[in-house]
Here is the input.
Amino acid sequence: MTRSGQEYIESLRDGREVWIDGERVKDVTAHPAFRNTAASIAGLYDLAHDSAHSAELTHEGVHRAYLIPRSHQDLVARRTAYKVWAEASYGFLGRTPDYMAGGAAGFAAAPQLFTTDTFDGAANVLAYHRRLAQGDLYPAFTITNPQTDRTRSASEQEEDDLVVRVVAEKDGGIVVRGAKMIGTAAVFGNEVIVGTIEPLAPQDIDHALTFSLPIDTPGLKFISRTSYEAGARSVFDNPLSSRFDENDALLICEDVFVPWENVLTYRNVDAGFGMWWKTPAYVNFVHQAATRFWTKLEFLTGIAILITRANNTFDLPPVTQAIGRLMGKVAQAKAFVLAAEVCCEEVDGGRGGVMPGKDISYAQRIMAGELYPQALQEIRTLAGGGLIQLPASAQDLLHPEIGPLVAKYIRSPGHSAEERIKLLKLAWDALGSEFAGRHEQYERFYHGAPHVYLTQQAWEGDTDACVRLARHCLDGYSLGRAARA
Here is the structure.
């Protein structure tokens, strides 16, 4: 049975070590930097636990993201579940529990890849997947090395523990020390998986490990970035950042003990890299992210339409064309999701079920990173100066002296000042606030840097098919035919 939202909230009150603004947070569910977002995530759990959407979100008491799809229909069912949760946050909560749940299902679909000559993690991977699914846990991850000296490998940094590494082995497990960055939503998770998605050099053997631990494990520290939720004035003034700031945190391990049963890969550079790319884990990530991205574009385009109607410009030909471009972008985002499902591929000859088509999934990363800034620019142009000249807060509308002036001068035909300000504050939070800036940067690098995913597309795509078609044309004529033309 899936957890209720209240059960999820209670699970966060475990003494985890989270820091922000020089303060150790006693309870993330009560702290003004985190409490509203925690409540929003609890709302997702309630949707799965007991709502009209429970059947879409779960199957036999397990969230669909944890299930290993066996057919195209299973992929469609999983995407339907992704869409329900994405719509609940309008696409602004990216690393919800279903994201890493899909990754865990990807590991479990190909456990044999975790058996190596240095460590056999196959049983641990299956137990990891089972523990998360049966407990309906929120798995987070930190799999990016800190940006210290990018010209050196992990083992060649100025200090040997800047990147998480093994410092000792014991009978019951290992001791690790070091850091990982961009633990998105990690402070809201139940377990965190620590690993490296980027390739490591052969000499980085001490850093080549992957493990998962409860968030409250002694020695685990999470240092939060600025909280946009904490800076929000109210839901009226900051409707997105006040409720959907999933946060990003730096994870630091200070001589943390990891039991052997929690270790997935160990002292093996190829296994630590291949677990993401040679199992369905990464394309499962993209399946969830692409569904969320499609939903987010729907939401942003909806804002654009509402603004142009409020400004009485919707029917002007240039504006209608701009809306058409945005609707085209929505259709592109949707098409990538549906196409990846239709072009699904067997995993391990079908023994591991199916996964979305890899080449289309990888191509979605390119599209999303380039398209999102374009969509924002289009909507900003449609909104114009109205986004800038807004009252500081809802209090101006409520003030007995200032309120009537605001009502008189900040309105439009058929829209009261309150309605117009409410709409434009929503638009600003999505387009121009610090929260919005984080999202634009995040969408650009959601699946890695362009030099990584563009190169990977060239490697993974069917370049031979492209060359064959061009070669077939070249082979169809010769210099001799030119003389006869």
Q: What stands out?
A: The chain has two domains: 5-277, 281-469. The radius of gyration is 25 Å. The chain is about 50% helix and 15% strand.
